[in-house]
Amino acid sequence: xxxxxxxxxxxxxxxxxxxxxxxxxxxxxxxxxxxxxxxxxxxxxxxxxxxxxxxxxxxxxxxxxxxxxxxxxxxxxxxxxxxxxxxxxxx
Amino acid sequence: xxxxxxxxxxxxxxxxxxxxxxxxxxxxxxxxxxxxxxxxxxxxxxxxxxxxxxxxxxxxxxxxxxxxxxxxxxxxxxxxxxxxxxxxxxxxxxxxxxxxxxxxxxxxxxxxxxxxxxxxxxxxxxxxxxxxxxxxxxxxxxxxxxxxxxxxxxxxxxxxxxxxxxxxxxxxxxxxxxxxxxxxxxxxxxxxxxxxxxxxxxxxxxxxxxxxxxxxxxxxxxxx
Lengths: 91, 224
Hints:
The complex is a heterodimer. By secondary structure, chain A is an alpha+beta fold. Chain A contains five helices and three strands; from the N terminus they run H-E-H-H-E-E-H-H. Chain A has helices at residues 8-21, 28-34, 39-52, 70-77, 79-88, and strands at residues 26-27, 55-60, 63-68. By secondary structure, chain B is mainly alpha-helical. Chain B has helices at 11-39, 42-68, 86-111, 116-132, 136-162, 165-185, 191-223, and strands at residues 6-7, 70-72, 76-78. Chain B has a three-stranded antiparallel β-sheet with strand order 1-3-2. In chain B, helix 5 runs antiparallel to helix 6 (165-185). The longest helix of chain B has 33 residues, at 191-223. Classes of the chains: A alpha+beta, B mainly alpha.
């Protein structure tokens, strides 16, 4: 962390990277710690990422686990371009 | 009442520049939509649609210059709105309507309010008056000036908050577009204002094009 406040696309990329780095399903508590988010923020982001189809949710026993989808992978691949575009055009 | 007064020597340049504006705005709309498809961000979609509307406006402007404008007097091209036929009025209305809709969409995006009612309110407060206003070109550019003042001030506010230099550059490019709108208010009875409007507009879009090309070049280098 460099102390600079992350913008929305950076947070989304961090969450996706965290999920992918597990090389398999990951629990929300792990995402919260590794992405450095509060519980409320994490819930909001996970909801948005599910709606966008960037991640998939699986119910394992009583807990939910998450994996990155193809759409999420594409976002990570193009993250630098998206971030540069958002910064350049103040989106 | 004339639409614009274009000096004969500038006619070909104006057609070329209008083609350039149409291409640049279409390119921004296309690329923003690509970014939307990757990020699924609502703001990227709104940005894309606002530039798409503005691009449609410029394509209509180009058609207007090609097919509708005719020589009036010795050195001037124009069209009289009171005597124009239905087919001559279509590109005029498309140009004026889509320019306002494009800027209204951009203003709505810049406001950052996620409530479509606000968007419809902006359109309701601007568009109907275009059809009842006597001086339609003046009305369009006065409304556009007001919307652009909002857009520029919101970009400046963002720059003060984030100190993000590209946002300040973008604010400057929209300021140039704003100045061009002020020039076009006087374009119906001044050759100089019409020419100056094109020059300011070109400068504004060249900055936007440079920014877009920098992003595309960066992406292209990465995929190479």
